[in-house]
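To the team - magnesium ion complex, inputs and output below.
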Amino acid sequence: MNINNAKFEISVMNKSQYPKGKTPEIVLAGKSNVGKSSFINSMVNRKSLARTSSAPGKTRQLNFYNIDDYFYFVDLPGYGYSEMSKSEQEKVATSVNSYLKNRQNINLIILLVDIRHKPTQNDITMMDYIKSTGRRYIVITSKADKIAKTKVKSYVDDIAKALDVQEDLIFPYSSETKAYVENIWEVINESLNS
Ligand SMILES: Nc1nc2c(ncn2[C@@H]2O[C@H](COP(=O)(O)OP(=O)(O)OP(=O)(O)O)[C@@H](O)[C@H]2O)c(=O)[nH]1
Ligand SMILES: [Mg+2]
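Output:
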């Protein structure tokens, strides 16, 4: 896909602030530090459109990135960040869950998990929640550049099992090398066209 104009639009906490209109939203969910913001940057060929963090857990709001007025990438705050106070974590989780459940504009939810690690309990809980919304979703195993190419498939298969995800709904990706980027655009385009 050829992107001409990707821009940050708004950072929100409450639904009263969500963008108006019917532009479809492609949502990035996942643990803090898994690579959500890097994913957005690499997909739109911009180094620092979405702020990536050397200090994880900085993002506590939902960030909307307008892609050619065609769709939004929505960067969710990461979960599992232990330095955040419990009440703060609950506040963030409530706003994320309510968005995922109620927002009409959501077209596709992408759950990112690190290809190198067994999914955490938080990942499994998030996966189950996403399934419970009844929305279209895929899982992307991030940081595929960190393991040998020949091992990618077996790592992806293990994660698919742990999250109980169909084989055709899980894809490896690397924001660093952009390996497999074509597959991901294909899925996104398909979801935007249906
Ligand atoms: N090698 C490699 N590193 C990556 C990749 N994607 C992200 N990273 C690195 O992982 C770290 C975290 O990436 P972010 O994109 O900030 O992660 P995030 O999920 O947005 O984190 P939060 O905003 O804290 O929830 C950064 O140092 C990135 O450079 C990847 O595909 N390969
Ligand atoms: Mg981020």
